[in-house]
Amino acid sequence: MTAITQRYDFTLLFDVTDGNPNGDPDNGNIPRMDYQSGHGLVTDVCLKRKVRNYIGLLKEEQPPYEIYVKDRTVLNQQHERAYEALKLAAKPHKETPGVREWMCQNFYDIRTFGAMMATEVNGGQVRGPVQFSFARSIDPILYAEHSITRLSVTNEKDMEKGQTIGRKYTIPYALYRMNGFISAPFAQRTGFSPMDLALFWEALTNLFEHDRASARGQMTVAGLYIFEHASALGNAQAHELFNLVQVQKKEGLDFARSLNDYEIQIHDSDLPSGIQLNCLVHRASRNVLNPV
Prior knowledge:
Blueprint: E1 8-19, E2 23-24, E3 30-31, E4 39-42, H1 44-59, H2 75-86, H3 99-106, H4 108-113, E5 114-116, E6 125-127, E7 130-132, E8 135-140, E9 144-149, E10 164-182, H5 184-190, H6 194-205, E11 218-229, H7 238-242, E12 245-249, E13 262-266, E14 275-282
Antiparallel strand pairs: 1-10, 1-11, 2-3, 4-8, 5-6, 7-10, 8-10, 9-10, 11-14, 12-13
Helix pairs in contact: 1-6, 2-3
């Protein structure tokens, strides 16, 4: 299948209620945050993981929709599959022509996000067409710390000990924004197709539907706004397009506790020539979606 021929930029909004959207393992697993401003952060890697998981469930890990980066995978063994399929002898630390292309053809996340495969069994290096920014909360976050208890114990010798077994951290409510980019020229290199693109939008729409966990509370996609360019190199700069999606807390509120506490304005009357805006998800009230 041919690769996409148009550039896309997009904005994803999602919220969390009584959960930790992305804990920091280097800091006791508290919610990631910008300590200068107090805004919450969710890494691009975290969000890409959820896309990978959804595609893996949807396509049952079958080529050409296998997932390269997944739990308990030995990456060198994945590379060896390409050499075996192409009947090539692997040369340590040297890339062999055709291997990188085979990996792109069979693994969805390599076609989409790229991969560094220059290991002992060299699969090459792929720069993917789809890239994410960190997600950042619209307002500074405050998190709560909770002790976790249980009635049972693991060993008999622990019967007299206290029953606190750990702690968890939650954010009462926060709305996050992530901006993304899809490059048509890089899609040509990996073979990222219109079908791959359609699956990608589906994965973003359902990002948290199969990623539930008690630690993450309730997480929901609140908005997905896609700027489609008429050309491969684009018809406007990305930051100009992102500025057309304005999100702010309603006046008079000290703290936001739901999506209804925010105003989302889409300035679609200001779209540059050659740009089409598609709103795949918009959970806010329709009267908040205002051409200005």
